[in-house]
Amino acid sequence: MARSTRRAGQAASPADTRLKAPAVEYTPEEWDRILVVNLRGTFQPAQAAARQWIAQGSGGSVTMTSSIAGAVGIPTLAPYAAGKGGINQLVRTLAAEWAEHHIRVNAVAPGHVANIMDSVTAHDDPASDRRINIITPLGRRATVEEIAAPYAFLACRRLHHRSCPGRGRRLHRDLTAPLPPHGAA
């Protein structure tokens, strides 16, 4: 998903899949599928965009999708969390490597979002929804529109001179407070 102009471009890498299960129940195939989608599905579009921008000498901006799950432990999301933690490190690494080419690399790490993934993540019990609302600072899931704003901000060409090349910034809602015990409402 790369959009490029002659002077600069942007790429977003929103690869995502989620399968909830206790860590002891994941099969190797489930683990691999989640990591392939989350890591390779994030890296390859960024790599393709960077190749083009480097060849053009145009610079650009890559914004990856991480998750708060990549920074704090959330039960039943072991491979998803490992993949998102991998994305966090990938952002730092690519930001340092591509900075000399004027390519900024950042990630947006949303918390719980009210979106199409609801049907996939299976937060289908009221206790789980109450728990999410308790641990989320605003007391509700973010809307897709709220999460889109950081992507638009990071893609802005005017941000280019204000960026911190090599640092790989991560934007996320403050969800680093200790989580209530799993199953608590």
Task: Offer a quick outline of the entry.
The chain is of the alpha/beta class.
Description:
This protein has 185 residues and is an alpha/beta fold. The chain has a single domain (2-112, 142-170), classed as Rossmann fold, CATH 3.40.50. The protein is built from 5 helices and 5 strands; from the N terminus they run ββαβαβαααβ. The chain has helices at residues 28-56, 78-98, 118-121, 126-135, 144-155; strands spanning 2-4, 9-13, 60-65, 103-109, 170-172. The chain has a 5-stranded mixed beta sheet with strand order 1-2-3-4-5, sandwiched between helices. Strand 1 and strand 2 (9-13) form a beta hairpin. Residues 1-8 and 161-185 have low confidence and may be disordered.
Strand tally: 5
Q: Tell me the domain tally.
A: 1
Q: Roughly what percent helix? A: 40-55%
Q: For the CA atoms, what is the radius of gyration?
A: 17 Å
Cα-to-Cα separation, first versus last residue: 39 Å
Looking at the structure, the CATH topology is Rossmann fold
Secondary-structure-based class equals alpha/beta
Largest sheet: 5 strands, mixed
Mean pLDDT: 76
Strand content: 5-15%
Question: Can you tell me the overall shape?
Answer: globular
For the largest beta sheet, what order do the strands appear in spatially?
1-2-3-4-5
CATH-level-2 architecture: 3-Layer(aba) Sandwich
Task: Look at the structure and give the CATH class.
Answer: Alpha Beta
Uncertain stretches? 1-8, 161-185
Task: Give, in order, the helices and strands.
Answer: EEHEHEHHHE
